[in-house]
């Protein structure tokens, strides 16, 4: 039997840990999650999961078949959770998405993969101050996830299956896991988000350049909305920043989060007050239902992005003065799609783990 260590306690790490325990009950002797931040912690803006919008609206390009598979798997699992386990923090919502007519129709609309697809009427587009000659829209069944509730739910399931947890200082290098726990585990899962490149710099310096933050800024408002709204490429008359968009996601407990921006390469945790004003103005302009929206909190956080997209791969690293190498499955660099691809990504981690754990289990392709 094998000892497994998962680095990180965000949604990618926790979902990977849960599926490993579920799929390999006889192969894994011990699974330990090591992390410096945990569900319920809000002190680190580079610990992305607590701050996420956490809905499902696949970003995958129509020719990115691998990412489409991950997102499909996750949509189906979220459908089950919303129906059967509402205590998970997953709640179904209709998503209304408005995009320029020049943009291609996303794969999940083309394939009719998602449920309850409808085209937004010209009347609704005008209601949202969008020119029907320049924009079109559609709606479908999506989900909003309350991050801390959901990640606490995952952690509870992991513990019930025998997984253990340990809070540690942040590691400097990936191989520091050995001195931290006192042995070389059969497998490490590296789900350290935006800091993954730093851990690998001595072996793969290119990852230090590939992994980068995409800063977001979010408003939290008291007012509720019975559906989600997304507007991409905001109208010129609003004079917004080039990296600005509108996302409004209601939460199961009431209120909404409103964003936002995609600011690549910005590691800062500073809040731009003028941007707050712009986000609120855009919200009121496109969603008249929230014209009296009241802000009770605002924050910034870093999406863990990577040039080339998410990395799910098996690597081996030599450890100084130890003959046995460290086998690591990476699961990082998903950007802003962590929740909506979490189960599909974790399933791929399990496929790679089957090779390391010397199991004869047969894995169905996603």
From TrEMBL:
Question: Which Pfam families would you find in this protein's record?
Answer: DAO
Q: Which GO terms describe its biological process?
A: D-amino acid catabolic process
Obligatory cofactor(s): FAD
Q: Which domain of life, per UniProt?
A: Eukaryota
The signal peptide, as residue positions, is: 1-17
Q: Which residues bind D-dopa?
A: 303, 336
The transmembrane segments are none
Cellular component GO terms, alphabetical: cytoplasm
* Alphabetical UniProt keywords: FAD, Flavoprotein, Oxidoreductase, Signal
UniProt-listed InterPro entries: D-amino_acid_oxidase_CS (IPR006181), DAO (IPR023209), FAD-dep_OxRdtase (IPR006076)
Molecular function as annotated in GO: D-amino-acid oxidase activity; FAD binding
- Keyword DNA-binding present in the record's keywords: the answer is no
Residues reported to bind FAD:
48-49, 192
**Keyword presence, Chloroplast:** no
FAD dependent oxidoreductase domain location? 3-352
Family under the similarity heading: Belongs to the DAMOX/DASOX family.
**Protein name (database record):** LADA_0H16754g1_1
- The organism named in the record is Lachancea dasiensis
Q: Provide the taxonomic classification.
A: Eukaryota, Fungi, Dikarya, Ascomycota, Saccharomycotina
């Amino acid at each position: 039997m094998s000892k497994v260590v998962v680095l990180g306690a965000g949604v990618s790490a926790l979902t990977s840990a849960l599926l490993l325990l579920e799929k390999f009950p006889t192969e894994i002797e011990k699974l330990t999650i090591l992390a410096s931040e945990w569900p319920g912690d809000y002190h680190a803006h580079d610990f992305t999961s607590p701050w996420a919008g956490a809905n499902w609206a696949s970003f995958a390009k129509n020719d990115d078949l691998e990412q489409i598979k991950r997102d499909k798997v996750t949509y189906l699992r979220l459908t089950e959770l919303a129906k059967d386990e509402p205590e998970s923090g997953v709640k179904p919502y209709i998503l209304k998405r408005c995009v320029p007519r020049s943009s291609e129709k996303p794969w999940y609309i083309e394939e009719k993969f998602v449920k309850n697809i409808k085209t937004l009427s010209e009347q609704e587009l005008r209601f949202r101050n969008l020119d029907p000659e320049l924009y079109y829209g559609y709606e479908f069944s999506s989900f909003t996830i309350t991050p801390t509730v959901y990640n606490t739910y995952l952690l509870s399931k992991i513990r019930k299956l025998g997984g253990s947890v340990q809070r540690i200082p942040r590691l400097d290098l990936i191989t520091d896991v050995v001195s931290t726990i006192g042995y070389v585990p059969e497998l490490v899962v590296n789900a350290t988000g935006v800091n993954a490149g730093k851990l690998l710099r001595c072996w793969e310096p290119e990852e230090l350049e590939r992994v980068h933050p995409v800063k977001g800024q979010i408003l939290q408002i008291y007012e509720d909305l019975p559906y989600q709204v997304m507007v991409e490429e905001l109208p010129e008359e609003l004079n917004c920043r080039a990296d600005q968009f509108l996302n409004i996601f209601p939460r199961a407990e009431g209120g909404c989060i409103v964003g936002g921006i995609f600011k690549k390469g910005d590691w800062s945790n500073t809040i731009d007050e003028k941007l707050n004003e712009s986000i609120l103005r855009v919200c009121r302009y496109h969603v008249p239902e929230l014209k009296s929206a009241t802000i009770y909190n605002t924050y910034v956080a870093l999406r863990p992005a990577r040039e080339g997209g998410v990395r799910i791969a098996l690597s081996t690293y030599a450890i100084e003065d130890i003959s046995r190498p460290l086998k690591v499955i990476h699961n990082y660099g998903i950007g802003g799609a962590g929740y909506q691809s979490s189960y599909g990504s974790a399933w791929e981690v399990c496929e790679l783990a089957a090779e390391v754990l010397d199991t004869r289990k047969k894995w169905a392709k996603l």
